[in-house]
Amino acid sequence: VADLLPVRAAHGRAGPLGPSLYALGMVANGDRQRAEQGLHEALDRFEARASDSSLGDPLVPFAEALNWAYSLEEWHEAQLRKAGVDYYATRDNDPDGEVVAGVIYARGLVAHHLVKVGLVASLDRYYDDYGAYGNLVWRPFSELPPPDKPEKKGRDEKYKRRVQHKRLSVRMRAVERFLTSTVLSHYPDLDDPGQSSPTSAPTAPRSGA
């Protein structure tokens, strides 16, 4: 397997959920589709468990999805940088991309302690973009644990604007949409980064304010 890009936060060590999760968090160059499929399947399991508690704890696949998303972002950043494209500028100029930034910020707060993934998720009533109700939302920014280092990339502000109080599933599908579809349109016609996975989420309304 060529050019594995590991999740940096793992530092080559097994995390509290075991080594398998961090093994899943590695993206092989030329095998992006596996990571896309991993993200998609993790979100499917998360949504199924969120609607049927007998299937297990929904935050287990949710934590897995966070790592897949981080790995895909790292992959795209590295590939676009080689092509002379600023991934972060691309991300931060897209509504779904801003969601990615906010979600990756939250993921970083629990990256070393995924047993505490509940610190970024809340069992509370939500008001989503369509006025619906539920009980799995992103926590208010004021309730998040503090970062180990001061945030210098503005991702905390994107969390406040695009992520907090929103349904976990709605925002994670926006993350999937950006990392498996939208970002591909910014690749120069140099090397085909690969066809989008057939498991990618269908087109949905883009993230609003």
User: How would you write the strand order of the largest sheet?
Assistant: 1-2
Low-pLDDT windows of residues: 1-29, 195-204
> What Rg do the Cα atoms give?
16 Å
Described by its quaternary structure, the protein is single chain
- Sum up the overall morphology in one term: globular
Round the mean pLDDT to the nearest integer and report it: 78
Which structural category do the helix and sheet elements fall into?
mainly alpha
Q: How much of the polypeptide forms β-strand, as a percent range?
A: under 5%
How much helix is in the residues?
40-55%
Summarize the main sheet.
2 strands, antiparallel
Number of strands: 4
Count of alpha and pi helical runs: 7
